[in-house]
Design brief:
It comes from Actinoplanes oblitus. The protein is an alpha/beta fold. It has 10 helices and 4 strands, in the order H-E-H-E-H-E-H-E-H-H-H-H-H-H.
């Protein structure tokens, strides 16, 4: 209902179970899937993981009543572009859909706080594996990856690293391809896992 009332967002389909998502995506080809975690049959996290592994997958924005750390991290590591709570005001949900469609990450403020706490106080990730993955990057690509991990926009990275926004976008695209990742959030998590952020 919220999205159908937004003039710049068009709802093209719905699925009531995570198992229905692949067929609905194949039929309707959405830019963004708004995924609930709690669904009968296949849950939204499992559906997100399966969907984001597919070539040409749409962006995923997870919407849930639960902001538990393990849900947030699992969704983001699976390639979700955002994580919102269902009590998010309607206008902010619409804005989040548009941001995720542009490839930007978005998190509810309470989720951001929990994620920061979890990342800074949680168990140490496998730094060796993350470091090995980052070792395949050129110096300039690593500079861009570090800036992405700091939450900088393309324009901010452009100004900081003295390159055009188009060049920054090209570097981010190469990072995603080289590292086998889906979005900027996953770049940031990998940089963190390597102990570089």
């Amino acid at each position: 209902m919220i999205l159908k009332g937004a003039g710049d967002v068009r709802v093209v389909g719905e699925a009531s179970d995570g198992g229905e998502v692949p067929a609905a995506v194949a039929e309707h080809r959405p830019d963004v899937v708004l995924m609930d975690i709690r669904m009968p049959g296949v849950d939204g996290l499992t559906a997100t993981e399966a969907l984001r592994r597919r070539p040409g997958a749409p962006e995923v924005l997870v919407l849930t009543t639960f902001d538990a750390d393990e849900f947030v991290l699992r969704a983001l590591r699976a390639g979700a572009g955002g994580f919102l709570l269902k009590d998010t005001p309607p206008g902010q949900i619409r804005d989040a859909v548009l941001r995720v469609a542009r490839g930007e990450a978005t998190l509810s403020p309470s989720v951001t706080r929990q994620l920061i706490t979890h990342v800074t106080a949680g168990p140490s990730p496998d730094r060796g594996e993350a470091g090995r993955r980052l070792d395949q990057l050129s110096t300039r690509e690593l500079d861009v990856a570090l800036a992405v991990a700091q939450g900088k926009s393309n324009a901010e990275i452009s100004a900081d690293l003295f390159m055009s926004v188009a060049t920054v976008k090209a570097h981010v695209s190469r990072l995603l391809t080289k590292l086998g990742l889906n979005n900027r959030v996953q770049i940031a998590l990998l940089v963190h896992d390597a102990g570089l952020a």
